[in-house]
Design a protein that fits this description.
With about 400 residues, this protein is an alpha/beta fold. It has a domain of about 210 residues: Alpha-Beta Complex (Spore Coat Polysaccharide Biosynthesis Protein SpsA, Chain A), CATH 3.90.550.10. The protein is about 50% helix and about 10% strand. Strands 3-2-1-4-7-6-8-5 form an 8-stranded mixed sheet, with helices on both faces. The longest helix is centred in the last third of the chain and has 38 residues.
């Protein structure tokens, strides 16, 4: 039990803290990568692609935000993918904006991935940028993303995802925002060391020629697309000054649905990208992929219940044998109980729309790992598809692009 406990604690610590510390040290030793040369303007032709299934309420702001990008108007095209929409999105875009936007439409909903594959067949520009309809981009987003493509070794560029929360936001929303701040920090380090391992679908760019059609039942299309490009020897760069802003999930139930589906997609991705687990062929990419992604989805979550059970057994043994060596295991078990009690209290307060910042970390950490285990069960059962069930977002606030 002691070996199980020590090994599992080490794996969890490395997953959430050790990897970040290690990669930070490696970046310090190797030095920072040179930033893209901003002295000479780089403005290749680009297509901004917006999957917009039944997103009519978001479209006026999204179109205005897209048109407002600080990028030469004759170098950027706008493509909205409304395939399967039943809310009049295509009609609205056609009547309101005419030829200023191109549409990929159809009566049948085949899922986001199938729609993206179809849209990419119509892209004629060397670069394509994907962004969600319910996000707002900063006005420099497109220019910041494409600047990295000066480097021929860069095959894709990921922007930053930012969660906008109010002071009265739920614990789930605040936890989601905290999680993405930490995730953005790790992505910066990954990019400095070698490449990031997975772009966020809210905002990322690819070289059109490198896009490979994705299996239509794929859940994490953004992750698969960017990792396959990295697997072909290209870097996936990270640009924190190109960011997409969105609101958190409406409730803990909505966030739970999203997290479980993402976790199931994570296990699906591990199966489809198993060739990346070969360090002799992929080197730094394998190191980053395993440390940052595989361990967070497939290693740390099952370690947590093992830690709790092993610690409980050791604590019981201490009390039964009246150990003269002290009660260290008992103290550690007590701290675990307090941590999960705080998480449970945070969950109960969340159900009553109450919030206490002190409980954000234990609540969201536990919540995230429970959802990962539920995602594993869902993946095993095979009851998922590439068609997303839209998750409600928190009450709308005015989003302005900086």
């Amino acid at each position: 039990m002691e070996i199980i406990l020590i090994v599992c604690v080490g794996l969890v610590f490395y997953t959430y803290f050790g990897y970040g510390i290690l990669v930070w040290l490696l970046v310090k030793i190797r030095g920072r990568r040179p930033t893209p040369n901003s002295g000479q303007l780089f403005t290749p032709d680009v297509t901004l692609i917006v999957p917009a299934y039944n997103e009519l309420p978001c479209l006026p702001d999204k179109v205005a935000n897209s048109f407002g990008q600080d990028y030469p108007a004759d170098r950027i095209q706008f493509m909205f993918v409304t395939e399967g929409s039943t809310d009049g999105s295509a009609e609205y875009l056609r009547k309101t904006y005419g030829s200023r936007v191109s549409l990929v439409e159809g009566s049948e909903r085949r899922g986001k991935v199938a729609a993206m594959n179809r849209a990419m067949l119509e892209v004629k520009t060397p670069l394509a940028i994907f962004t969600d309809a319910n996000t707002i981009l900063n006005t420099q987003a497109v220019q910041r993303l494409v600047s990295h493509f000066r480097d021929p070794n860069v095959g894709a560029v990921a922007g930053e995802k930012r969660i906008l929360t109010n002071d009265s936001e739920s614990a789930a929303g605040s936890g989601e925002g905290l999680y993405w701040k930490y995730e953005s920090f790790l992505k910066r380090l990954d990019s400095e060391l070698h490449t990031i391992v997975g772009a966020a679908g809210e905002l990322f760019a690819v070289r059109t020629e490198l896009y490979e059609p994705v299996e239509t039942d794929t859940i994490l299309d953004d992750f698969i697309i960017s990792l396959r490009i990295a697997g072909r020897g290209y870097r996936v760069a990270y640009e924190p000054d190109a960011y997409a802003m969105e609101r958190p999930s409406f409730s803990i139930l909505d966030e739970q649905k999203r997290k479980v589906r993402i976790a199931a997609g994570g296990f699906q991705s591990i199966a489809r990208l198993k060739y990346l687990l070969n360090p002799f062929r992929y080197g730094w990419l394998t190191f980053e992929y395993v440390s940052h992604r595989v361990m967070r989805w497939a290693v740390a979550p099952p370690c947590l219940p093992l830690i709790f059970l092993a610690n409980a057994g050791l604590a019981i043994r201490e009390w039964m044998t009246e150990s003269s060596g002290g009660y260290g295991w008992t103290v550690l078990f007590g701290l675990q109980v307090l941590f999960y009690a705080a998480a449970w209290l945070g969950y109960r307060l969340e159900q009553k729309n109450l919030r206490w910042k002190l409980l954000f970390v234990p609540f969201y950490f536990t919540f995230m790992n429970v959802c990962a285990l539920a995602g594993l069960v869902r993946y095993w059962k095979g009851n998922q598809s590439g068609t997303w069930e839209k998750v409600r977002r928190a009450g709308e606030v005015e989003l302005k692009a900086p």
